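The records we work with from here on pair a chain with its fold. The integers have meaning only within a learned vocabulary of local backbone shapes. A complete example follows; check for yourself that the lines match position by position.

:::
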Amino acid sequence: MNHKKSGPFPAACIVDNGIVVQKQDMLRLLRSLRRVGYIYRQDDEITNTGEGCVMEAFCDPQQATIVANHSLYLNAHSFDYIEIITNCTENGVETTFALVQENRCLCLTPLFEGKADKIAQLDAADLEAIVTEAIAATWDASLDNDL
């Protein structure tokens, strides 16, 4: 059966693997990253590897992507697309974001080390709930001591 639609195509839906070409979608992915391992390839040769923290993700045709001093400043305009690649490893599922531009590729793999990274990823509502719970527990303890 052939259905004709009037209007634009629906937005893409990518689950675990795929290619992201829209700059705003690329930016959302880059902003979700914190601490990463990186591999930089040029002409299929690895030229740099390391680890660092994503300090900023932005979308500006006038600025560069910079990786230096264990800090990454990522510009979505520096790349044609991001390929999301999910692999099963001995440590579980690992996702890599391959930022591609012509003959060069910056591959980013999120690194998770436990509690410190989980705390860094808490949002304001989570932090408020934790503080509220701690204050309530302190009040309860002081009331118990007064009795």
In short: The helical segments are 23-31, 115-120, 124-146. The chain has two domains: 18-112, 114-147. Residues 18-112 form one domain.
